[in-house]
Write a structure and sequence with these properties.
The chain is mostly helical. It has 6 helices and 2 strands, in the order H-H-H-E-E-H-H-H. Strand 1 and strand 2 form a beta hairpin. Helix 1 packs across helix 3 and helix 1 crosses helix 4. The longest helix has 15 residues.
């Protein structure tokens, strides 16, 4: 079973993937639209900035955007970053290919909402 942190991280990164190349997205917008507690989201995004998956922009027009193309961010990478291992993730989705699937994948064997929510 995925931890709540992993689920929130997947949802936040999926939100950023959905707005890819549309400019920075404000933290409040992500928190509200994805129903993630603001303080928890701040911690998650800070960790993703340190890992290079997310870029933070300061200022009036600031916010967050992906640091990599969505196709280059894999669910397995997200789980490793938030849990440290893929061992428990096999219950999440039994197909090994799911760990290699990017957040930009169109054809998911299980809906993203089922995997992340």
């Amino acid at each position: 079973m995925l931890s709540q942190k992993t689920r929130y991280t997947i949802r936040a990164l999926q939100h950023l993937a959905d707005t890819w190349r549309q400019g920075p997205v404000r933290l409040d917008a992500i928190a509200e639209q994805q129903n993630i507690p603001r303080k928890f989201l701040t911690v998650i995004l800070s960790e993703m900035v340190r890992e290079g998956l997310v870029i933070s922009h300061r200022g009036r027009d600031g916010g967050y955007e992906l640091g990599l193309q969505p196709v280059d961010i894999r669910y397995g990478d997200i789980i490793r970053l938030t849990r440290g291992s893929l061992a428990a993730a096999w219950r999440w989705c039994r197909a090994p290919a799911a760990m290699r699937m990017s957040i930009a994948a169109i054809a998911c064997p299980r809906p993203i909402a089922a995997c992340a929510g």
